[in-house]
Write a structure and sequence with these properties.
277 residues, mainly alpha, 73% helix, rod-shaped, disordered N terminus
Length: 277
C-alpha cells in the first residue's frame, strides 16, 4: 500500500478539475466544480485560498431581483397620489432585505488582487449603498407626512359620509310624515330599501292606522341609517389601524436599513482605495 500523496502544494487549474470527472454524471459534476471553484491567489510564492467565491454571484442575483421588484412597484408613476406614495414606500421597505443582502454578498470578500473592472464595480456598489442609506433615512419624514395626510383624508371621507346619511334620514322622515296614504308610504319604503319591512308589517297588522305605519317606517329608516353608519365607522377605524400599523413598520425598517446601508458603505472603504491589480 503506497503512502498518501499530498497535492496541497500542487497548483490546480479549471481545466484539470473539469477533466477529472468521469462517469454518467460527469457533466453535472463539472458544472458543480465550475461554480464551486476555489480562487487561487499567488502571493510570496505561496498559494492561498479565497473560499465562498460563489457568494458575489448570489449577491448580484439578489441585487438585480430587488431592482426588478422596484421597477414593478413604482411603475406606472402616480406621485400626486398620497395613497400610492405610502404603499410604494411600505413595499420598498419590504424589499430592503434583498437589496442589503445582495450588496453584502457582493462586497463579502476582499481578495488581495482584483481586475480593474471588478474593483470599480464593487466601488460603485459601495457608493450605491451610501445613496440607499440616505434614501431610506429620507423615507422616515415622508412616511410620517403621508400618514398624517391619509389620516386626515380618511377622517374627512367618513365625516362627509356621516353627514350625507344624517341628511338623508332627516329628509326621509319629512317625506314619511307628509305622506297621505299607505300606497305613498309603500313607494317611499321601496326607494329607501324598506319595502319588505313595511309589507311584512302590513300583513301582520293590515288595519293599522296610517300614523302608526308612519312611525314604524320612520323608526326603520333611522335603524337602517344607524346600521350603515356603524358599518362605515368600523371600516374607518380598521383603515386607520392599518395605516398606523404600516406606518410604524415603514419607519422602523427605514431607520434600520438606512443605518445598515451607511454602515455597509463605511466598512467597504477598501473598494474606494487605489489598488494595483
Amino acid at each position: 500500500m503506497t503512502d498518501h500523496e499530498d497535492y496541497s502544494d500542487e497548483p490546480r487549474s479549471r481545466s484539470s478539475k473539469l477533466k477529472r470527472n468521469s462517469g454518467s454524471m460527469a457533466w453535472f459534476n463539472n458544472i458543480l466544480d465550475y461554480f464551486n471553484e476555489e480562487i487561487l491567489v499567488k502571493k510570496d510564492s505561496e498559494e492561498k485560498f479565497i473560499p465562498y467565491s460563489i457568494l458575489p454571484l448570489v449577491g448580484w442575483g439578489l441585487f438585480l431581483y430587488s431592482i426588478l421588484q422596484l421597477y414593478f412597484l413604482i411603475w406606472p408613476l402616480n406621485v400626486t397620489n398620497t395613497q400610492w406614495e405610502f404603499e410604494v414606500m411600505v413595499n420598498i421597505s419590504d424589499i430592503a432585505v434583498y437589496t442589503f443582502s445582495g450588496i453584502g454578498l457582493i462586497l463579502f470578500n476582499k481578495p488581495p488582487t482584483m481586475t480593474f473592472i471588478n474593483l470599480k464595480s464593487k466601488a460603485l456598489i459601495s457608493w450605491l449603498s451610501l445613496v440607499l442609506g440616505v434614501i431610506y433615512l429620507m423615507i422616515i419624514p415622508l412616511g410620517i407626512r403621508d400618514t398624517d395626510r391619509l389620516f386626515k383624508s380618511k377622517t374627512e371621507e367618513y365625516t362627509n359620509k356621516r353627514a350625507i346619511i344624517s341628511d338623508n334620514i332627516v329628509k326621509g322622515e319629512t317625506v314619511i310624515m307628509e305622506a297621505e296614504s299607505k300606497d305613498v308610504l309603500l313607494q317611499i319604503s321601496a326607494s329607501a330599501n324598506l319595502l319588505k319591512n313595511l309589507q311584512d308589517r302590513m300583513k301582520i297588522k293590515p288595519d293599522e292606522s296610517i300614523e302608526s305605519v308612519k312611525l314604524f317606517l320612520k323608526n326603520e329608516l333611522i335603524k337602517n341609517g344607524d346600521n350603515v353608519l356603524t358599518q362605515w365607522e368600523n371600516n374607518f377605524l380598521s383603515e386607520k389601524n392599518n395605516i398606523l400599523k404600516f406606518s410604524i413598520k415603514l419607519n422602523i425598517c427605514a431607520l434600520l436599513f438606512g443605518i445598515l446601508f451607511i454602515w455597509m458603505w463605511k466598512v467597504s472603504a477598501w473598494t474606494r482605495l487605489k489598488h494595483s491589480s
